[in-house]
Design a protein that fits this description.
The complex is a heterodimer of chains A (181) and B (475). With 181 residues, chain A is an alpha+beta fold. Chain A folds into two domains: 104 residues, no CATH class; 67 residues, no CATH class. Helix content of chain A is 43%, strand content 14%. Chain A has five helices and four strands; from the N terminus they run βαβαααβαβ. A four-stranded antiparallel sheet of chain A has the order 2-3-1-4. In chain A, helix 3 packs antiparallel against helix 4. Chain B has 475 residues and is mainly alpha-helical. In chain B, helix 3 packs across helix 13. Classes of the chains: A alpha+beta (181), B mainly alpha (475). The interface between A and B is large, with 70 and 69 residues.
Chain lengths: 181, 475
């Protein structure tokens, strides 16, 4: 069956979070770029070990939050100033009475920021993605339990089925397996 | 000079009490938590679920009866226009606050013990807000007009008043519910992936698979995931403080004596956290009894810490009660003085609802003082009893605020007693049915403990952890 299927990459399991981190450092130093580690929980320090920077997810959230504030400002100002001016408690709409709109501005800022956080997270992680070649590897289901994995993709320029396999075994990888698409 | 006889020895290093006792491994955590969902439905679950859902149905029928007959079926009258409806609304929304405090504020303050209780507490938040949301919706009377609450011009081209705390409330509560759902679901995704990978039946594999979104625990995903979680926690923290502040504005911006006080926002927030933690313990202690395998995850340490928060917030609430009394005395406003000292404390037996004030005082201020004693904080029975007192006390707090101020207001000729009708009582009881039924369903179908976060606080999760060195004692 597997012969005519495209090769996705090579996967290896590691004993512990510590072993995985050392291995990741070595893969990073070997110059690979299209690879990933898979863990049951976020391993702190792994971003550095993989050579990844800080997540830039906060940028879309800032934009989302600003949109929320702007939306609330327009939502409260336009009716109060133009469409439907209302005098409540003898207070007309002017700059001195704007603080009464702060709760709505605050709530919509939070609401829009939260939605941008979740949508940005989904887009940046390319989720939902119900099919992924790594799921073809039977052992991989342990990633959500206690498995620590490295997967190097075949489309990486440095990938070579034999050499990469040897490298993974050398740095302590167990059950090195070819993953098909 | 005499030789010093003092020998200097390094004091033994203080060892942190482990959060997961008995040094459990990752697989153990996965197994025990997932087993709750995967095992056959236990008999007790049906025995709990059937009565709870029956009560929920009775509650829904009462709501239907009220909608079809109008608010006249309740005990409200022209003097006491708000009573159990708003009491229940504030009671439930306050309960929700503990869940967000545990999931967001304790996350930002790096309180790692939150990991094993945050999922259940957040679920409790959602279900409490569902119960809370019922009351403002139905108390408007003509429910089909409830869309007038939305920030759009109504059928007559009239816009809502954006400077009204009631409209702020609509924004605050709906934002709170939405953000809580997003936060909760984001936290659930990796654990749903665990259930997906363990599922045996096709249906379970399919459903958990869909909701797990294809999560594969890759570090390129975790990197953004952790940032998203941090941001959601950062957003929820001011949000949760704002929600009960806005709820308190409903009262504080009015001119009713007993409501018109500036102390309300912080006082309400402290009370919300206080009542919420009591409810968290009220449902966690029995679940812990029913699932003894969780003993190593939800330990005495957790109960102890929650009891300390109850003690702290209960004392803040007590301080707020006394401040209110002082301001009523010192403020020299005779209506406010009357509300506090006659209607509530009941000088010369003039307070109709003084008994409620004393119930509130005893339950909220006196009963949690038991938690100064360490053996009481770790005694589950004692903690449970105090929590029940707090649950009752926090409901009475809102009742006292609302009904004592209204029933005996400015003009004695308009004073009016208030008695709840059977519809009101059963609607309130019904919300407990809804709350508990939803929680039981949650326990049955979703992992009630956040597995990946609990794994993260075990020593094994530390990438610099080397088991061999540990045995030599030089970690």
């Amino acid at each position: 069956m597997a012969e005519y299927r495209k090769i996705y990459g090579l996967g290896a399991q590691f004993e512990s979070a510590a072993a995985l981190m050392h291995a990741a450092e070595k893969i990073r130093d070997a110059g690979f770029s299209k690879w990933d580690v898979h863990t049951p929980y976020p391993v702190h320090g792994m971003d550095k070990a993989m050579g990844l920077g800080k997540s830039w997810l906060s940028t879309p959230v800032l934009i989302g939050g600003a949109t929320g504030t702007l939306t609330a400002t327009l939502l409260t100002f336009i009716p109060s100033w133009g469409i439907y001016p209302m005098i409540v408690h003898g207070k007309p709409f002017n700059w001195a009475t704007v603080p009464a709109f702060f709760p709505i501005m605050f709530e919509l800022t939070v609401l829009f920021s939260a939605f941008s956080t979740v949508f940005a997270l989904l887009i940046m992680n390319q989720l939902p993605k119900w099919y992924h070649p790594v799921f073809n590897w039977e052992r991989f289901s342990r990633v959500t339990d206690d498995g620590f994995f490295i997967v190097i993709e075949a489309r990486d320029a440095k990938f070579s089925e034999t050499k990469t396999r040897a490298l993974l075994e050398e740095i302590g990888g167990l059950h090195v397996t070819l993953i098909h698409d | 000079m005499a030789e010093s006889t003092v020998t200097l020895t390094t004091p033994p290093e203080l060892v942190r009490v482990p959060l997961v006792t008995n040094d459990r491994k990752h697989t153990w955590i996965t197994d025990k938590v997932s087993n709750i969902v995967e095992a056959r439905t236990p008999l007790w679950w049906w025995m709990a679920f059937l009565p709870c859902s029956l009560i929920a149905v009775i509650g829904l029928l009462c709501i239907g009866y009220q909608i079809s007959n109008g608010v006249g079926v309740w005990g409200e009258n022209k003097t006491v226009g708000w009573a159990w409806d708003i009491t229940n609304f504030v009671f439930w929304i306050g309960i929700g606050h503990a869940g967000t405090l545990i999931s967001a504020i304790l996350f930002l303050t790096r309180q790692k013990w939150r990991t094993s209780i945050n999922r259940a507490a957040e679920a409790m938040t959602l279900f409490a807000v569902v119960c809370a949301g019922i009351f403002p919706g139905i108390h408007v009377g003509r429910v089909w007009m409830a869309w007038f609450l939305a920030p759009i011009p109504n059928a007559n081209g009239i816009w809502p008043n954006f400077r009204s705390p009631l409209l702020w409330d609509v924004f605050a509560v709906s934002t709170y519910f939405t953000v809580s759902v997003l936060f909760w679901y984001t936290g659930l995704v990796p654990d749903l992936a665990t259930l997906r990978d363990r599922a045996k039946s096709r249906v379970a594999k399919y459903l958990y698979g869909i909701f797990a979104l294809g999560w594969r625990g890759s570090n390129r995903q975790w990197r953004h995931y952790e940032m998203a979680y941090l941001l959601l926690a950062g957003l929820s923290t001011p949000l949760v403080l704002s929600v009960h502040s806005v709820v308190s504005f409903d009262f504080a911006t009015s001119i009713m004596p007993g409501w018109h006080t500036t102390i309300f926002p912080p006082y309400f927030v402290a009370g919300a956290i206080f009542g919420g933690f009591a409810m968290v313990l009220t449902i966690l202690l029995p679940s812990r009894l029913l699932y003894p395998q969780l003993d190593d995850l939800v330990t005495r340490q957790h109960v102890d810490k929650m009891a300390k928060i109850i003690l702290l917030t209960g004392t803040i609430v007590g301080y707020a009660y006394l401040t209110e009394l002082f301001m009523a005395y010192y403020g020299a406003n005779k209506f406010e003085f009357f509300t506090f000292f006659s209607a509530r404390i009941g000088i010369n037996n003039s307070g109709w609802y003084s008994w409620a004030y004393y119930v509130m005082m005893f339950c909220n201020v006196i009963s949690p003082q038991l938690f100064w004693i360490k053996s009481m904080r770790t005694n589950y029975v004692a903690v449970f009893i105090v929590c029940m007192f707090v649950n009752v006390g926090m409901w009475f707090e809102r009742f006292v605020i609302i009904v004592t101020s209204l029933a005996q207001d400015f003009l004695p000729s308009s004073w009016h007693h208030y008695h709840p009708s059977w519809v009101e009582i059963w609607t309130f009881v019904g919300t407990f049915g809804i709350f508990l039924s939803l929680f039981l369903l949650f326990m049955r179908f979703l992992p009630m403990i956040c597995m990946f976060e609990v794994k993260l606080v075990t020593p094994e999760a530390d990438p610099h952890h080397h088991p061999k060195k540990d045995q030599e004692g030089q970690h």
